[in-house]
């Protein structure tokens, strides 16, 4: 999500997690500790109605780095709300498969066929460097949890030659020492999803995979090659020590914990795409960089804000007696044409809730019939914190200019009917699905999972190998035993 600091969209990868680090951020990301709740930064907005609903701005960093700086009234609003909505429904198997297929080149193609030879060779050299360095980048906690460097590299970069160049560019941006060290700790969005499951709240999503994914694939080939080349140049300069990134994950955390609501760096986190505008670029390349930035700003922020806002409105109208907690990337609430602006245009009164302001309790609900409840899409996850759980990391968001062939359910003149169609798939019986790691609003899916399932069908010896890998990838604490006994005979 950056002109700014758009870290990585989800390049879906299944990652085992390490022990949770100490709560609280390193000194570099800490502002002066503030003794009074009223002095803390707040990313909470109240939708004034009875019962009240809330918007909460998140960032795609490990929750342990920011949790102590989130005001108590934001946490209480989450506790009091009966329904929690996020950007994507990562518990739906379709979401995972769609995000994976969206990243892949057409059948029979690979990067060597589509990239200029020099860029392909530089990309391959850089990935070899990352693979060599990864053991030294990992923390003792990660190693203590049995997280091997080779596995982690394959989880992030496996099958990279089959991915579209734009997704490889985002993957390269995520293969940094700071990012690797943070793997295994749920990002703030995921932590809230896990807490919502633990508290048995209803959960849902306001977007579909295609709406986050297709805009990235909408760049033309020359723009994609430019973006990948600039990304490689930046990484090569960092390796050589000749470049310092203008702002880092530490800067993002500091702005979230201690900054103000107008901080542009937080808007970049919500689009999660690298910033390519550089005053040293030749004029023609500068134009290309500006075109890419304008495209992503329009597609990944403005159009998404409009769509998300209209779907929030439809939910509020369809379930007027329910209290919602909408947890979206903080950038969706900042600048112009925000989600807040969409709701205000529709006649809702939305106001910022400073730290220290009391939260009005939601009126108690009597048991409701299925017809009066939003379709459930509960996020199944271990109790939080769960350092051994698999979490699906989006380093956020795929988080866009939507191609004309992508439909916009929920934004039509008939919001209830559109929303009914939008949530139609959630009427199907839901299998209890282990939540995986997601992070920067956006997901990573490891091709290794598919390989494991193929191995299962290849004979007894390979089946034993599958079980060994399965047990490594899915720690005991993350498994739901009846499901495993039924499907795999694993105890």
UniProtKB/TrEMBL annotation:
It is a single-pass type I membrane protein. Its cofactor is Mn(2+); Co(2+). It is an enzyme of class 3 (hydrolase). InterPro entries: TIKI1/2-like, TraB/PrgY/GumN_fam. It comes from the Eukaryota. Residues 1-19 form the signal peptide. One of its GO terms (biological process) is negative regulation of Wnt signaling pathway. Residues 353-365 have a biased composition (Basic and acidic residues). GO terms for molecular function: metal ion binding; metalloendopeptidase activity. Metalloprotease that acts as a negative regulator of the Wnt signaling pathway by mediating the cleavage of the N-terminal residues of a subset of Wnt proteins. Following cleavage, Wnt proteins become oxidized and form large disulfide-bond oligomers, leading to their inactivation. This is Metalloprotease TIKI.
């Amino acid at each position: 999500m950056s002109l700014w600091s758009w870290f990585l969209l989800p390049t879906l990868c299944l990652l085992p997690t390490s022990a949770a680090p100490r709560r609280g951020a390193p000194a570099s990301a800490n502002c002066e500790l503030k003794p009074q709740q009223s002095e803390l930064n707040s990313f909470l907005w109240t939708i004034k109605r009875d019962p009240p609903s809330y918007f909460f701005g998140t960032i795609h960093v490990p929750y342990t780095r920011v949790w102590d700086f989130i005001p108590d009234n934001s946490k209480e609003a989450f506790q009091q709300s009966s329904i929690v909505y996020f950007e994507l429904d990562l518990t739906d198997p379709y979401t995972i498969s769609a995000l994976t297929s969206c990243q892949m080149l057409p059948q029979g193609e690979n990067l060597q066929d589509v990239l200029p030879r020099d860029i392909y060779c530089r990309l391959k050299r850089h990935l070899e460097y990352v693979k060599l360095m990864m053991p030294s980048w990992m923390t003792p906690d990660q190693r203590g949890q049995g997280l091997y460097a080779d596995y982690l590299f394959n989880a992030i970069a496996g099958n990279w030659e089959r991915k579209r160049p734009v997704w490889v560019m985002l993957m390269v941006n995520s293969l940094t020492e700071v990012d690797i060290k943070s793997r295994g700790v749920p990002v703030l969005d995921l932590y809230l999803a896990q807490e919502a499951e633990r508290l048995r709240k209803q959960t849902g999503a306001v977007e579909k995979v295609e709406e986050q994914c297709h805009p990235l694939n909408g760049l033309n080939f020359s723009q994609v090659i430019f973006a990948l080349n600039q990304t490689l140049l930046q990484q090569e300069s960092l390796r050589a020590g000749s470049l310092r990134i203008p702002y880092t994950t530490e800067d993002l955390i500091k702005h979230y914990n201690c900054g103000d609501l107008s901080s542009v760096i937080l808007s970049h986190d919500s689009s999660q795409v690298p910033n390519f505008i550089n005053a040293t670029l030749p004029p023609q390349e500068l134009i290309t960089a500006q075109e890419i930035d304008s495209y992503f700003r329009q597609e990944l922020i403005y159009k998404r804000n409009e769509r998300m806002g209209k779907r929030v409105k439809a939910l509020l109208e369809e379930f007027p007696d329910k209290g919602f907690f909408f947890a979206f990337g903080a950038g969706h609430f900042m600048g112009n044409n925000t989600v807040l602006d969409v709701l205000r245009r529709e006649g809702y009164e939305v106001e910022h809730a400073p730290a220290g302001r009391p939260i009005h309790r939601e009126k108690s609900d009597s048991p409701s019939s299925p017809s009066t409840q939003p379709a459930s899409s509960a996020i199944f996850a271990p109790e939080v914190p769960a350092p051994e759980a698999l979490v699906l990391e989006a380093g956020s968001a795929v988080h866009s200019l939507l191609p004309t062939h992508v439909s916009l359910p929920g934004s039509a003149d008939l919001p209830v009917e559109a929303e009914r169609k939008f949530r139609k798939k959630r009427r199907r019986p839901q299998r209890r699905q282990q939540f995986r790691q997601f992070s920067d609003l956006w997901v990573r899916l490891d091709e290794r999972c598919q390989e494991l399932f193929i191995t299962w069908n290849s004979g007894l010896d390979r089946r034993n190998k599958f079980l060994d890998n399965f047990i490594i990838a899915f720690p005991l604490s993350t498994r739901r035993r009846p499901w495993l006994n039924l499907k795999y005979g694993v105890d």
